[in-house]
Amino acid sequence: MRTQLTPRGSGTLALDRSRAMDYISLTKPELTILSVLTALAGYYMGAGGVLEGAGLIHTLLGTAMVGGGSGALNQYIERRYDAQMKRTENRPLPSGRIAPREALLFGLLLSAAGLSTWPPASICWTALLAAVTCVTYLSLYTP
């Protein structure tokens, strides 16, 4: 997010915050948070109640980024349908606040960054499962 100090009333800072909020909404934060909480519970159970700091941070960050990237890609794919429904017509893509190409790039980069966050010892299975989840969500859930 670009933060620019400008004279009061110019609206630049408000536009920057609004644009940042549009990108955040592309990630479907409510669904992403549920995925992160599920990953936290699974990590806790798998670790036998002992939470190791770095591994936990990598897991939660990777889950949030892949989940958010998947949400952005979902909205990119569904943008034409979203424009036709009252409930979704004000989302950033159908309303024109974010260009489709920007959303596609954002979703791809966020997902790729998320897949790269896991430590090398766990990256194979964890990244594979995250990638399969992303592809499954986009191919089965998304029309």
What does this structure look like?
The chain is built from 6 helices and no strands. The chain has helices at 12-26, 29-46, 53-77, 79-84, 100-115, 120-141. The longest helix has 25 residues, at 53-77. It starts with 11 loop residues before the first helix and ends with a helix.
The N- and C-terminal alpha carbons lie at a distance of 31 Å
Determine Rg (CA atoms, Å).
17 Å
Helix content: over 70%
Number of helices: 6
What would you call the structural class?
mainly alpha
Shape: elongated
Concise overview:
The chain is mainly α. The chain has helices at residues 12-26, 29-46, 53-77, 79-84, 100-115, 120-141.
Structural features:
mainly alpha, 143 residues
Secondary structure topology:
Elements: H1 12-26, H2 29-46, H3 53-77, H4 79-84, H5 100-115, H6 120-141
